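tool_call: predict_structure(chain=1)
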Amino acid sequence: MNPFKGKDIISCKDFSRDDLLYLFEKAKLIEHMLNVKGKVDLLRGKVLATLFFEPSTRTRLSFETAMRRLNGDVIGFTSEEATSVAKGESFEDTIRTVSQYADVIVVRHKRPGSAKIAAEVSDVPVINAGDGSNEHPTQAFLDIYTILKEKGSIDGLNIALVGDLKHARTMHSLAYALSNFKVKLYLVSPEVLRMPKEITDYLKEKGIEFHEVDELSSVISDIDVLYTVRVQKERFPSIEEYEKVKGSYIVTPKLLDKAKSDLIILHPLPRTIELPTEIDKLPYAKYFNQVKNGVYVRAALLALIFDAL
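tool_result:
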């Protein structure tokens, strides 16, 4: 039974291990189909609306690519300045309006909880593409799909989540999603950027072993996956506070001298100083594979929402 049919995609907490494995099975199928044919005629006549009130490159374009690869159509906008929100229209009325034009809505907004609000007022399914510093579920889906492809399994892995764990919605969703598997997590951050307590409490409830540590070098030889993220400058109350922590963790070749030979490095991008371009040439670097996998996972998700796969 398809667990995604007609469903809103708001939080990773809404999906079980079996749900995720079902999605990954279909993503693998979509990947094969698209690699053979380029396009498949699964969503002809369906319209995806991409409503991005915050900037995006990978999420928006991968959703649009995924929809077009399935022969569907796309409408949308990339900033609220180009919409009636600039004239004073409410977020809710914008969602109500667009749900009359489209069959599914992907929304990104700076306000935590905005995706849930959108789902409550929309006449069509809503996919959360990032609601402030809260969650980004489809990023976590493609992250775990990438790990599964690269490592063959999720269970038994030691995974380090590194950097701005307080503000990075990708980290929040990934922690929730990984709680469905038998993993050990290392939460690597400065004290001021620790993972929010509600998430660590959730990990405890799910029986996930995790360790909060200050130094990446102290765990680098133990981990199978290094997932790092930029310090989220836009979430800080002042530039001074950001400057204090922006260079907390930088992945260098010297650091990786102590790593396992089959370590993989992931990053949701965009990156700043935490992941120098010199790392791109090393066999550990899998973040552009991650980008490509976003199309397959999001295409599978869209097809499953319409029960077309």
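agent: The two ends are 11 Å apart (CA to CA). Proceeding to next step.
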